[in-house]
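Appendix B. One record, verbatim.
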Amino acid sequence: MIRVILQGGITICLITLYSISLTPNQEFEESEPTEVIGMQFLLKEYIPGCKSTPHVQSEDASSRLRRLDATVETLRSSYENKDLSAISVLFTPLEGSARILNEIQHDVEFYDSISLTFSVDRILIAQHNYAVHLHWEGVWHIPEQDLPLSERGLSVFKFTGDQQITLHTIDGDSPFGLATRSIPEGTT
């Protein structure tokens, strides 16, 4: 918006200065107005802040984002489909990751059906570390109960890696491990 106002002001100044320099009997020739208009477009190249260059994302960064998106979707769909072998590949061999894997395994064994959706809010990238901020919403159904368990929350999934992107921690509300959090006392 400021750039448009600045360009408009410069254009008016140029036209005013050009018309003042003309003698009263001199008229515009056909080529002169296009020179004035051409000057207006050239000025933005020389005034700092007026030239806009689009942000070009490198192919490496965009391919890493595609791999990260695929990893998040694989995690979600594998959890819904109770595919533990596909899920285990997505985790780093760290203590926090082992805890999350145990929670996922317990959910898969405890619930009859799982439905989970992710809505990514933003992705922060620092070298080969990624923080995916997302909203999640899920429905977990136990065969003996009529009403399924519905939950939602906000999480930050922290991934690492370049070619193979793996999850190492979850901050905030984890969509995994609801079986251990929702089991009433004395029931196993």
